[in-house]
Amino acid sequence: MNYGLGTLQRLDLKWNFFKFRLKRFFEKQSKIDLDKYVQDVVVIHLKKRKDRYKQMKREASRIKLKVGNLWERIRLKDGIDVVGKTIEKTKSFNPYYSFKSHYEVDPHPNWKDYENIEIRCSDPEAGCTMSHISVWEDIVKKKTPHTLILEDDFFLDIGFQKKFSKVLSEVPKDFDLFYLSTLPTHYGFTWDPHSENVIEIHNGVWWLSGYILSLKGAKKLVNNFPVLGPGDMWINHQFKDMKVYSTISNIIGQRPDTTSDNVYSFEKVFRYW
Question: What sections of 144-237 are H helices per DSSP?
């Protein structure tokens, strides 16, 4: 969530990302037995973003499986483009939410007086959330044991194959949700140590850019519908009934060298300050 970044900060991110990619270019690839850990790989992708399609295909081709490569295993899930559409409340999603829901995830000391303000999701937030909802519903319908879910601006860390196998060997087998990519909130992030590379999450993380969802985890989410507001915020409120873990360091990231369509609805509350 790179909101509020100045021009120099964005340029610095892009420069560092370029150096990262250059270093990764010379990395020796190791193979991974993906079927050992997940049974489906889904990438949420808007068809109109052809630039991301090319980047995504190139990124996925870096993972060498015992048979083929990750790109051959990926199932593209058409992202829901809501531009120009009116999004109303459904059984699974309500675009309106109280700022209190955001405050409980990231309780900034200056936000306490504004928690009762009602906010409506931005169109990009609504489309992204509805896309994730459709994946969760697919998991339940198809009874898929474990699914790796990515957004189309993902990139893989150096040594991803080894790190992926390592953290999956450490996380409890009965997890509901396992984040491979998160952004901790400033004030609400609470966790407990679990192992060398894995922590247990209780509250306070953003992003749904890279995570593994189990079938029982998907059932818990679907049973708690409707989603109120942005999905990465709402899901924090389900943690109390879920077994949620995360890598200590992200092994999947969001590309800083691609434009984002997102607009953060919570920033609307700032007009009241």
Answer: 160-170, 215-223, 231-234
Residue from 267, 21, 50, 37 nearest 171 by CA: 37
CA distance 204 to 1: 13
Q: In whole angstroms, what is the distance from residue 132 CA to residue 208 CA?
A: 8
Q: What ranges do the domains of the chain cover?
A: 7-272
**What CATH fold (topology level) applies to the domain 7-272?**
Spore Coat Polysaccharide Biosynthesis Protein SpsA; Chain A (3.90.550)
Q: Give residue 25's identity as a one-letter amino acid code.
A: F
Partner residues linked to 44 by β-bridges: 77, 151
Tell me the per-residue pLDDT of 157-198, one tens digit each, with 9 for 90 and over: 989 999 999 999 999 999 999 999 999 999 999 999 999 999
Q: Is the pTM of this model over 0.85?
A: yes
d(CA 14, CA 27): 20
Ramachandran quadrant class, 172 (left: phi over 0; alpha: psi -120 to 50; beta: rest): beta
Helix H or strand E segment including 185? none
pLDDT in tens, 106-144: 999 988 888 889 999 999 999 999 999 999 999 999 999
| Total number of residues shown for the chain | 273
What is the C-alpha to C-alpha distance for residues 183 and 160, in angstroms, rounded to an integer?
A: 18
Q: How many helices (H) and strands (E) does the chain have?
A: 8, 18
Is residue 125 within 8 Å of residue 101, measured between CB atoms? no
Q: List the structure tokens of 148.
A: 């790796």
Cα distance between residue 36 and residue 156, in whole Å: 19
CB half-sphere exposure, 242, CA atoms < 13 A:
28
Tell me what pLDDT residue 2 has: 40
Residue 133 CB partners (closer than 8 Å, separation 6+): 92, 93, 225, 227, 231
